[in-house]
Specification:
- The chain is mostly helical and 193 residues long.
- It has one domain.
- The chain has 5 helices and no strands.
- The longest helix is centred in the middle third of the chain and has 34 residues.
- It is elongated, with a radius of gyration of 19 Å.
Length: 193
Amino acid sequence: MLCCMPGVAVVPALLVGWSSAAFIISYAIAVLAGHVEPLVPYISDTGTKPPESGVFGFMINISALLAAITMYIRYLLIEKQNESSHFVRTSCNMFTLCMGLMGCTGMGIVATFQELAVPSVHDIGALVAFGSGVVYITLQSIISYKSCPRWNTYLVCHIRMAISVISCIAFITMIVFASKISMTKIDWTPGEK
């Protein structure tokens, strides 16, 4: 199986490296071009105007593909471990994979439809990406607990669950504050609401 092949662990590392580079490069281009303020802009703001929008879109789409491959490898790994331990139903593992792939699709939508060009589609893509991502990592945390102690340590499970809780809190906070904003805009002038 693919998950048992040597070297497959490079895919998640490549995902983290490539995604980080996507955010850093598009941020640097946007700041140098004067399109965003250097102090903590939204990720989407750094990929709104050309030329950074092209770089952002291309690199995030590659990140979405790498994330999908990583999730599929994790799915195969759990299937293989489950053959001998029977710690999770196959349907649960498949549902978790589908949630993850839905998040990757949302990432692709965010990358393809810029924040200011098509804000409603961009926002729906972000909602799908982040919402599905929170569900995916929460389900992966639960699967990790079910596979203890044979396939995971409790420390790893606790760390995964802590990340899930933080992600859930961040997602809820994002929804609350995004609902308070009535318009999408990058440049604000003093005195604007």
